[in-house]
DNA sequence: GGCTCTTGGTTCAAGTTTGAAACAAACCTA
DNA sequence: TAGGTTTGTTTCAAACTTGAACCAAGAGCC
């Protein structure tokens, strides 16, 4: 079957997408690194925990909502634990699982870092989008994510290399960006 | 000044954005790694070179269009050079510069990898977007990128941590995704 | 020419990510 | 309930990224 190459407009969109995501990711990482001494992913770990009931989450669930590999999360949590921002606890029901818990210090650090982070997200992204564009972005991204989620519904796509073979947890959760109920 | 927190809709959009970009990047990296034995960035280096006049580009210019640091590019080109896909040449006019040149083997590898890559980009992104959404995506991303480009035009933003202090080359170029004139 | 500043590129160490094991606990199922 | 599979997590080495430091060459100035 002959390749369906990208149309000129698709190419433009794709290039713009690559540039924008690169720049945005860089900007956010840089800001957080400077102001909070941690990369974006680590901040996201804290933020997600802060939003979870009782500030605790099973490692796998956390990895799932963050869309990262378990191994990557292990690394992040290990580092955050060393810094005292997160603590690991054993799960009572399932002895295989371990639970990451946000410590008080972690909460404090998060709340100190959140304003700068949110400000950056605003300045780099939302301040440049019209309200309609925010809606468009949400819809576009939701669609993409749904397509790449474990449980794709389209026919005949069992083992293509771009689909994660990880288990798909059916429960949808909502990762936060800012601390739960900031003061 | 009190923080302007994200509105519920902005939060939804931001979460969707993070999920989508993570999943998409993962999917593309995985496909390219499996089928071409290289991460996305390396492929992009080849693709950009293939589209440049005479298949050669100054390191700095390449880094600029790819939106990556010079050091990161150095690493990538070193690896690609070891594999024989790219060659370095000295610049005749400016003895500081070095030029990355796509070799014949590099061209061959790129042309072999391109169909699968484009197919993945289609399957994961464009097949899920309506024509209007492609336009919207382009516009949104172009805006974001423009804002983060070195030469921002807004007032009073000289040294915020999220702005790159790298020099901004004024000449705009257009990075390709697929090889120049694929066979 | 000599000085200083900027630009182009690499190097290096420390940090992060990847993917393939390894392990242990839970879950079948015959 | 023994054996086999699945699930939750970590470990490890290799690959990649980051940012600061370095070096060399161009540019501007006296």
TrEMBL record, chains A, B:
GO terms for biological process: response to stress. Residues 146-183 are annotated as: Disordered. PROSITE patterns: HTH_MARR_2. One of its GO terms (molecular function) is DNA-binding transcription factor activity. It holds the Pfam family MarR_2. Signal peptide: none annotated. Transmembrane segments: none annotated. InterPro entries: HTH_MarR-typ, MarR/SlyA-like, WH-like_DNA-bd_sf, WH_DNA-bd_sf. SMART domains: HTH_MARR. Residues 10-146 form the HTH marR-type domain. This is MarR family transcriptional regulator. It comes from Streptomyces filipinensis.
């Amino acid at each position: 079957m002959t390749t369906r190459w990208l149309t000129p407009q698709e190419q433009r969109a794709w290039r713009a997408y690559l540039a924008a995501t690169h720049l945005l990711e860089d900007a956010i990482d840089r800001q957080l690194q400077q102001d909070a001494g941690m990369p974006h992913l680590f901040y996201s770990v804290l933020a997600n925990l802060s939003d979870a009931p009782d500030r605790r989450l099973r490692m796998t669930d956390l990895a799932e909502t963050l869309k990262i590999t378990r191994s990557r999360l292990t690394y992040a949590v290990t580092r955050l634990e060393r810094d005292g921002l997160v603590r690991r606890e054993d799960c009572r029901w399932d002895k295989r699982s371990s639970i990451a818990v946000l410590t008080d210090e972690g909460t404090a650090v998060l709340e100190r870092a959140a304003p700068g982070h949110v400000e950056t997200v605003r300045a780099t992204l939302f301040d440049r989008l019209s309200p309609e564009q925010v809606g468009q972005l949400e819809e576009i991204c939701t669609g993409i994510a749904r397509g790449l989620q474990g449980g794709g519904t389209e026919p005949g796509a069992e083992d293509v290399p771009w689909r994660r073979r990880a288990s798909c947890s059916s429960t949808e959760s909502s990762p936060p960006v800012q601390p739960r109920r900031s003061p």
